[in-house]
Amino acid sequence: MRFVIWAGLITALLVPVVTAAFSPYLAWREPIYVIAGFAGILGMCLLLLQPLLAGRWLPGLSPVTSRHWHRWCGLALVAMILVHVGGLWITSPPDVVDALLFVSATPFSAWGVIAMWAGFAAALMGMSRQRLSLRFRVWRLGHAALAFVTILGSVVHALLIEGTMEIISKFALCALVVLASAATLAKLRVWDVKRR
Amino acid sequence: MTPVSYSRRSLMAAGGAALAAGASGLLMPVRASGLAPTPTMRGGANNYRPGAPIVERIGGGGFWMTGTVRRAGDGAPLPNQRIQIWAHTTEGHERDPQSHGATLTDADGAFRLEMPQIVPTFGQPHGHLAYDSGEFETVFLRPVMSSARDKTLAAHFVLQPL
């Protein structure tokens, strides 16, 4: 069972990346644009890992290891967002400026920018848990709410884009991300902030 | 497109309105109230290169950008108007100089310029067009292709005299 879960997870993460690597659009793109696109896809893959690690769903990982990985994946996600936006900025500065100012011609840009800021805020909350001196469950609700906005924004962003991702694997990855985050929110009962 | 339904009542109302408009037209000079000018589209001006040369064809061709240029109000076709066209194609990025070219409208205010196949960039297969010659208000358009496999794309300008 453990093997099946891990094999399934690795397949779910690899297929979208590999199919995107065969996209015909790559031939017409500069290396920096290709890197920016793949940073977005890898970010989406990390968005599947994050709720699975937070919910301690993955067999063989102790709670401490899960949290450790969750922290590293969160930092990697922030790095992927920066490479994604930075690479797109180099490729076409006015399009990225429009997106960041919420005046873009494409509706998915706004979803992406909202997801970016929510992701940064969730990461910041994660790093400053001790300093915030919030009760654990209150802190967790805040972190989870920001993570949920990140996931929702990223999924809508990805689904509306006509890019290098192959359509079926993109829908499958997005569905898994939503499913994993919903399952984790339910398992941890993040909305329950009562003192116990 | 707004669907239009013709009921007897709406036809009578429209007829009455038309009569009233016609009567007022006898009393007042004709106003430029007919055809509204095309507004500049969001992101239309992105990666514009002022003064891109007039060309026979952009690169190797194989894809057609077409359209018309008319005057706001009376809708008169505007001949000899310079329209710049650019896009991310199989031969270059939007920012590359070789991805840009301009053409002039013919006697009927129509233009068509052959260019390389447009490929999706920044999430949508789209082209850019500019009218920026000074005689009319500047307009930038950013039409989106309904399918990335389309071999043609159309964009229409209605220009407001300055």
Q: Mean pLDDT across all residues of chain B, rounded? A: 87
How far apart, in Å, are the first and last alpha carbons of chain B? 29 Å
Mean pLDDT of chain A: 96
CATH superfamily of the domain at 63-159 in chain B: Aromatic compound dioxygenase
Note the topology.
The complex is a heterodimer of chains A (196) and B (162).
Chain A: H1 2-21, H2 31-54, H3 63-91, H4 93-100, H5 107-127, H6 129-132, H7 136-160, H8 167-188
Chain B: H1 8-27, E1 63-71, E2 82-87, E3 100-104, E4 110-115, E5 127-131, E6 139-141, E7 152-159
How would you sum up this structure, described in words?
The complex is a heterodimer of chains A (196) and B (162). Chain A has helices at 2-21, 31-54, 63-91, 93-100, 107-127, 129-132, 136-160, 167-188. With 196 residues, chain A is an all-alpha fold. Chain B is α+β, with helices and mostly antiparallel strands and 162 residues long. The longest helix of chain B is centred in the N-terminal third of the chain and has 20 residues, at 8-27. The two termini of chain B are 29 Å apart. Chain A binds chain B through residues 25, 27-28, 30, 33, 88, 91-92, 94-95, 98, 103-106, 108-109, 160-163, and chain B through 41-47, 88-90, 93-95, 119-126, 142, 148.
Keywords, separated by commas or semicolons:
heterodimer; A: 196 residues; mainly alpha; Four Helix Bundle (Hemerythrin (Met), subunit A); B: 162 residues; alpha+beta; Protocatechuate 3,4-Dioxygenase, subunit A; three-stranded mixed beta sheet; 1 helix; 12% helix; disordered N terminus
Give a summary of the structure in a few sentences:
Chain A is an all-alpha fold. Chain A is built from 8 helices and no strands.
